[in-house]
Design goal:
By secondary structure, this protein is an alpha/beta fold. It is built from 12 helices and 21 strands. The strands form 5 sheets. Strands 1-2-5-6-7-8-9 form a 7-stranded mixed sheet.
Length: 402
Amino acid sequence: MYAFAISDVIYCLHADIQTTDLFEGIWPIKDGVSLNSYVVKGDKIALVDLVKDWSQAPKQIAEALTSIGIDFTSIDYLILNHIEPDHTGWLREFRALNPHCEILSTDKGCKLIKSFYKIEAGVRAVKDGDTLDLGNGQTLAFIETPNVHWPETMFTWHEASGALFSCDAFGSFGALGERVFDDAFADEEIAFFEKETLRYYANIVSSFSLFVEKAIQKTRHLAVKLIAPSHGVVWRKNPQKIIDLYVKYASYAKGPAEKEIAIVWGSMYGNTKAGLDAVIRGIEAEGAPYAIHRVPDEDPSYVLADAWKSSALVIAMPTYEYAMFPPMAYIIDLFKRKRLFGKTVLRIGSFGWIGGAKKEYEAAIEPLKWNNLKSYEWAGFPSEEDLVALEACGRELAQSVR
Ligand code: FEO
């Protein structure tokens, strides 16, 4: 891999991660993910963000450095915008290669460097508004952006070029290959990254949407010409596009989101599915767009992405051992953790000899303050009367997203 010139003094280095590992140990990355670092050269050289030893990322970054005539020992300053190990996991090895480099992070970041990596010497805390003069007219400034998505996070700003090094903010899943800039990708490829941006946002950042909005607000006065995140595309042709996407995704936290319905369903023997088919007939009769996911067959990562962007949900699950169908209990727990507020929701499901899912479900969703249209249940296979009622429920839900 080689370095991509952003200007005559700024370079993007990226490591493409292609692995069956899950991101954060939870989220699938079947199309990979990129770990982006950046070099800024003045008289001194700064490296913004590092990598972890994953899919040969240190080797990929080393090769990119070599392509611009430097190596890890040439780095004078290592700026760590965020200490999550995807960007810092290789820090001890880096430190062993380059004991003289000064490491800069926020005060909270320095504490995490100590706790994660037991490194204290040569680590300096920076705070909001501090600057780093690299010489030869190159200055970096630091902007604290706590909780996007860890408390220690910051952006690094290069005013002379208008480049904002935003770490996870404005990031996405998806490996980049031999291109990094938005203008190097075809429209359908950008559409792919948009989908992966939504999934990344819903999986990684969504719980912290209020802080995303604050961080974006804090950079409004800057003349941003390029968004350089630590994952995914570098936005130089249209940086406003990724800013607008993040503003939109953050706004979904308060609802309403898109005028769409996300259907999440699980069924043991087809009885709940028969009821869901009636609901779908109602939704289709009203012409409302919907996405449908079966659990546990489909990964929750994708369920979460569609649920995040939808104004309305259908949750279809049977009772299982006097309680919620276990794969759906996990989905509901994720919805709570990711603070999936502001949804209009229809829950349906079959039970055998006695219910139980309804009671547990209604208690579980209480903190989410959903507009809970109904939790409609029936015994065994749905009767004709049930099917008529369920189709009407589908229509009512569809009308709510008009
Ligand atoms: Fe890409 Fe929160 O680390």
